[in-house]
Structure formats: structure tokens, C-alpha cells
Specification:
This protein is α+β, with helices and mostly antiparallel strands and about 350 residues long. The chain contains four helices and 15 strands. It is elongated and about 90 Å long.
């Protein structure tokens, strides 16, 4: 399942509470005391807000416990903190990290308060708040965290917490993810030197068109002719066409590319998908199938897996641009349908492609 807008979860508030262990190292130089035990227990509460897909801000209060000094004296630590959380690995984006393990780093400032039963000099109470952790959702609104944090040179903590979010994917319009139907892979022969057969250029005189033919039929005839000589897809039944009679949507999507061996869309690809989504939304009754193909350089299994990841990336992106997810189908082909030889870089570029097919 995924939301029909990747941005629906931005601006979501969350709060959490947890406990753990701390290590406290007060500076006893110049005093009559020594540090006997630097270990203690800690408790924390925090409030956060998702700013965008990968950045949040958080404020927290942490009771870091007490360090034990000689003569059974103690010094307690507490911190009020404010900082940013950057989601850096795993399910890092706002819509994804509500379903999978996500990792983060934090950076901010803390105001440290010391409660000592003995007179000790206190240095600057403002310090860096740094940390790293992982988050795992366990329900629609609930999840758990584990984190290592440092509040200054004197105080560190390992904390586990439970958090609650004000919104989840189920609170946004939810629909079934496009069903990925991998086509049967026909393994090519091991002779990887087979040549690519170029499509011949054929010039065909336009047939005489009866005046009784409809305009749509004339466009279809024109597209069939041009499909033999140019990159022009024959439109599906009811599909709008361009001025030359070619399909407006069906065919390979130019400029929709990914970073190498990943499902991350390039910036230019996002711009092209933005334009596609805008055009699709002017034809709200059309249902389209997103098709993703890869080359053979990664092997059959990995190519299919990458194809699945990429087709979901494209479908999610279009859904995030207000294309009704019910109008989208997704299909991964892996490396089973090459357009060119995989021997050359140019051939592999042609084989790595995203296409649309109007249903």
C-alpha cells in the first residue's frame, strides 16, 4: 500500500518517550572529590515535526541521571535540546519510513543543567547535541527508536523509545500498490555477440483514404505508416494522438533515467515526469501501464529486482503528482526484452528504459 501523494506525510507531528543508560564524566579537577561511578540511568521525551521528505526538527528534554562522587556525593545532569534530524539510509523518505527501517543523524544544541550536592565549577552550559539512530514502525501510528546521543563532553546516552505520529499512510488516501507482473524471462543464448538488427527504413506511399473514414481512423493509419520509419507509437483504442497521428502517451518515455544501478530518479527525470503527470491529469479517464526494462549487465535476478524497484519509483512519483493511483498499472520486465545488444554502452542505454502503454 502507498499514499496517492508522497507529500501527504510532510508536516506531521510526532512525540515519543524512552529510557536508557548514560555515561557522565564531570570534571573534578581542582576539587577534593573523585569520580566513583560514571554510569547512570536516563529518561527522555521529545517532540518532532517532519519538514520535508528527509528532514525533521525535534525538541527534547532528557534527564541523564547522576554521577557518583567520592564521599557518596552526587551531581545530576539534565538537558533541554533543539535540533534537526536528517534521514540518511534505509527507508529515508517520509512516505517510505512509515513502513521500513530508517536511519538518521541529528545535530543541534543543548542547554545542560547540573544539580550538584557539592560545590563544583560549571563550564558553559550550552553544547552540541549530536547523535545517530534507527527507527522502526510497528503500527499505523506507533514505532520504536534506538539512538546514541552526546550532549557535551561530559554526558552521553544510549536510549530506546516509543513514538506516536499524528498521521500515517492509512490516514492519507490509500490504495493498493500497482501489481507488478514480471513477464516470463526468456534467457538469451550465451552467445553475447549476436548483432542488433536495425529496423529497416521503409518508404510507403500513403494509401488512399476514403472520405467515409473517421478522423481517428485516419490518425491510426498515419501512425502505422510512421511507425515503420520513425519513433512513433501506434495509439491504443481511445488514446489521444499528436498532430502526426502518433500516440500521445504510449511508447518509451524520453529523459526518464535513474542513477546507475539504483531506483533513484535523476533530476531531469523528475522534471519530465512532472510534465507527464500534468498531461495525464488532462485525460482523467485513461489508464496507463508503466513498464520498466533494464540491461543484462547485473544478471537476470538483479535486473528483475531493479526493474521492480524502478517501476514502483516511477508509479509513486506520478501518484505524488496527483495522478490517481487507480489509473496506474506497473510491470517489470527486467532484461527480458532488449532493444539492442548489451555489448556496447549505447546498447545498454537503449535497453534501460521506461515506457507507457495505454490500457
Amino acid at each position: 500500500m502507498f499514499a496517492n501523494s508522497a507529500h501527504a506525510l510532510e508536516g506531521t507531528w510526532y512525540l515519543g518517550a524512552g529510557a536508557g543508560v548514560s555515561q557522565l564524566s564531570p570534571d573534578t579537577d581542582g576539587s577534593d572529590f573523585t569520580l566513583d561511578d560514571e554510569s547512570s540511568t536516563a529518561a527522555t521525551v521529545y517532540l518532532g515535526l517532519d519538514i520535508n521528505e528527509w528532514l525533521s526538527v525535534e525538541a527534547g528534554y532528557t534527564d541523564l541521571g547522576e554521577a557518583l562522587l567520592s564521599d557518596s556525593e552526587t551531581i545530576g545532569y539534565s538537558a533541554i535540546s533543539l535540533g534537526a534530524v536528517g534521514w540518511v539510509f534505509g527507508s529515508r523518505y517520509a512516505d517510505e519510513r512509515q513502513e521500513g527501517l530508517a536511519g538518521y543523524v541529528r545535530l543541534g544544541v543543548s542547554s545542560i543543567e547540573n544539580d550538584a550536592s557539592v560545590p563544583l565549577d560549571e563550564s558553559d552550559s550550552t553544547s552540541l547535541w549530536v547523535g545517530a539512530g534507527v527507527q522502526l514502525p510497528v503500527g499505523q501510528h506507533w514505532g520504536v527508536r534506538a539512538e546514541l546521543s552526546s550532549y557535551d563532553g561530559d554526558a552521553q546516552a544510549a536510549l530506546a523509545s516509543i513514538y506516536w505520529r499524528s498521521k500515517s499512510r492509512s490516514d492519507s488516501p490509500m490504495i493498493s500498490a500497482p501489481a507488478i507482473t514480471p513477464s516470463v524471462v526468456s534467457h538469451p543464448s550465451k552467445d553475447t555477440t549476436r548483432a542488433t538488427i536495425a529496423k529497416p527504413t521503409v518508404t510507403i506511399s500513403p494509401p488512399k483514404v476514403s472520405v467515409s473514414k473517421s478522423s481517428s481512423q485516419q490518425n491510426l493509419d498515419m501512425a502505422k505508416q510512421r511507425a515503420l520509419t520513425a519513433d512513433c507509437s501506434v495509439p491504443a483504442s481511445g488514446e489521444p494522438t499528436d498532430a502526426d497521428g502518433c500516440a500521445l502517451f504510449s511508447g518509451v518515455l524520453p529523459g526518464v533515467e535513474f542513477n546507475p544501478n539504483t531506483a533513484e530518479l535523476k533530476s531531469e527525470a523528475k522534471n519530465n515526469l512532472d510534465a507527464l503527470a500534468q498531461t495525464l491529469n488532462t485525460y482523467p479517464s485513461l489508464v496507463v501501464e508503466v513498464q520498466v526494462h533494464t540491461d543484462q549487465s547485473l544478471g537476470v535476478d538483479r535486473s528483475m529486482q531493479l526493474s521492480k524497484e524502478r517501476v514502483m519509483s516511477v508509479a509513486r512519483y506520478l501518484a505524488g503528482r496527483s495522478v490517481d493511483i487507480k489509473r496506474l498499472r506497473a510491470r517489470a520486465f527486467g532484461s527480458s526484452n532488449p532493444r539492442a545488444s548489451n555489448i556496447t554502452a549505447k546498447g545498454r542505454d537503449l535497453n534501460n528504459r521506461v515506457a507507457l502503454k495505454v490500457q
